[in-house]
Write a structure and sequence with these properties.
The chain is α+β, with helices and mostly antiparallel strands. It is built from 5 helices and 5 strands.
Length: about 160
C-alpha cells in the first residue's frame, strides 16, 4: 500500500507516493521528482554529495527517510538561484573556479549557504568547521574555501 508524503521542495508543494516511508529522501528527490541534484555518493552520510536543507538545516538525504519531510520544507541546489539570478555563493564558486568535476559541489554549496546565512562574517576556521565531513575526491577544497571566504570577507 502506497504511503503519501507531502512536502515543499524548492518552493513548490510536492506529493510523492512511496511503498516504504523509510525510503531515503534522496531517492524520492531523484527518482520520483526527477531532480539531478542531490547526488548519490556513499549512501552512508560520509561524503555529503546528497546534502539538502530541511527547514534550513543541511542534512544528508541518503540516510533521511522520506517520511521525515512530511509537512516540511526541502531546499536543493536547484532552488537556490537561477542562471539569471544566481545565489551569491553560486556566483562566488564560479568566479573562484571552485570545482573540477563538480560531483561534490551540491554538499558544499548547500552547507555553505547555511553557514553564511547563520554567520555572514564567518572566519576561515568557522567555515572549515562547518564544512567538516564533506568530501571532494578532486581536491577542490581550497578553491571551495576561497569562494566561501570571498562572500564572508574572511582573511585568506
Amino acid at each position: 500500500m502506497a504511503h503519501e508524503v507531502n512536502f515543499e521542495c524548492d518552493g513548490k508543494e510536492q506529493r510523492v507516493a512511496v511503498d516504504d516511508p523509510g525510503m531515503p529522501l534522496l531517492y524520492a528527490l531523484t527518482d520520483l521528482l526527477g531532480l539531478k541534484n542531490p547526488r548519490y555518493g556513499c549512501g552512508v552520510a560520509q561524503c555529503g554529495a546528497c546534502t539538502v536543507q530541511l527547514d534550513g538545516v543541511p542534512i544528508k538525504s541518503c540516510v533521511t527517510p522520506v517520511s521525515a519531510v512530511e509537512g516540511r520544507k526541502v531546499l536543493t541546489i536547484a532552488g537556490l538561484g537561477t542562471p539569471k539570478q544566481p545565489h551569491p555563493l553560486q556566483t562566488a564558486f564560479v568566479d573562484a573556479q571552485a570545482t573540477q568535476c563538480g560531483y561534490c559541489i551540491n554538499g558544499f554549496m548547500m552547507t555553505a549557504v547555511a553557514i553564511v546565512r547563520d554567520n555572514p562574517t564567518a572566519s576561515r576556521e568557522e567555515i572549515r568547521s562547518g564544512l567538516s565531513g564533506l568530501k571532494c575526491r578532486c581536491g577542490s577544497h581550497m578553491s571551495i574555501l576561497r569562494a566561501i571566504e570571498s562572500v564572508t570577507g574572511a582573511d585568506t
